[in-house]
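Quick one from the shared queue. A colleague (R.T.) flagged Beta-xylosidase as missing a structural entry in our internal table.

Convert sequence to structure tokens.
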Amino acid sequence: MRPFPSASGCTKSAERLKTEINTSSHHLIRRLKLVLATLHCLILVSPCMAQSTQPVHPATTYRNPVIAGDFADPSVIRVGDTYYAVGTSSEWGPAFPIYSSRDLINWTYLGPVFTKLPTWTMGSFWAPELYHRDGTFYVYYTARRKTDKHSFIGVATTQDLRQGFTDHGLLLEWTSEAIDPFIIADNNKRYITWKAYGLDKGKSIEILGAELAPDGLRVTGKAFTLLKAEQTDWEAGGTEGQALFKRGRYYYMLYSGNTCCGPQCNYQVGMARAETLQGPWEKFVGNPVLVGDDTWKCPGHGTVVTTPDNRYFYLHHAYNGVDFTFTGRQGVLSELVWNEQTQWPAFRYGSSTPAQAESPLGDRQKPTAGLSASFADNADHLPWVWDVSLPAPVFTVQDGNLQLMNTTGNLAGSFLGLVIQKGTYTFSVDIRPQVNLLQSICLYGDANNALGLGVRADSLELWQVKDGIRQVIKRQVRTKNLPHATLQLRSYAGRFYEFGSLTDDGTFQRLTEAPLDGSFLPRWDRAPRLGISVSGQQKGISLIRSVSMTYN
């Protein structure tokens, strides 16, 4: 375990922070959190540790989120010196995005688990769980079954994450619902755990477990109970999102309770431990141990991973306090430290997700980057997503343009989207206008809720689809029939939007005097996506020359 500062150093740090708090009320809340972290250090430091005479150097830090944008229910594993994470995609395809990292704070998108959706599924692609054994990667995932619209658990495998997974179909069907799989090995046996009874009337929500076959592709054991939800203030909404790991004599579990999603969420994290997987499990008396604040709301549902120097980190999700549901539940990182006397862990920075914290491996964090793609350069690398409830969009990059076919009767048109990483941004699209095709910048919540600005050869059209009704907000004649048009969207805190176009000299001309309120766009369990759409009475293809995104 990484050593903590000496008791003397911690005491001096606490005194210094106390003085600063008394003299600087403007930063009171932030400094109180630092005081709590320092006092936590005093509690955990060994009284026998030699006092350091070395100068203290500022630690390299990171800021949350570490995986920006909608990335709920993250699962993380370490294979060698590389970390891999996968998260919920909900109603977006392709299903389950995968990222890799060498330091837990700088992540690179690798691709999806499934480019083609498993045949038994229809949506609700939730809570995937990565597992690695003997050179094979497994993903245990939740999806809604076509035949009865119930959510159950499937399994897929691969030897190369960049090549996608081979699906092995339905693994676990349990009454009306089985979600949130988590895999753990015990005495050379593999076990699956899951949340059950969430939709079964009259049955308490439980976290159950059962043994898997040696190949990990079948459930062979009899189900047993690990935890039951209790009618406490923080567990009344249920118990789910369990993450298990072993340290010393105990198995430990972090689990989440209450309402995960949406503007009324109150998600929180508790912990429990047991000497065997079958229990009995002892819940920590100080639960909940991780709660929301004004910076990061409704934290929960993640997994624990260790670094090579044996530090423990919990990669989980939370809503940004400013952008909230408009950017979704983002991937955030919180460190666990240990009280060796009680053998319970605690979160290093207190009971809330840290805004800033010490880097796991001392690396520096790269800033959130936008994107810029010119299709004249045959840029076909963008991580496009789409609505899985509709036929997959047909598109290609050809002749210097992104060509998206107008193939659906969807009110918002055929849509290609991107994950929004921050709520304040500028998005621009350079388009070759056509007579009978409306090519739009589009904010897309689902098939019945979208907002966009489109261009035809002779006009601009600001439109919305709200609760399944399409309405033209404003139409403006194009005074110059130029061969291209640059449409632009400016977003503030993810909720307020200004649509307009750029003149030849780069001046932004908005279509409305006041920004539009897009609060109707976020869905219960996911954030909107931003991209392009094409629609019209006749079949056609878009001619998009470039797209760019800058975050402010």
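The two ends are 39 Å apart (CA to CA).
Residues 71 and 330 are 5 Å apart (CA to CA).
Added to the table.
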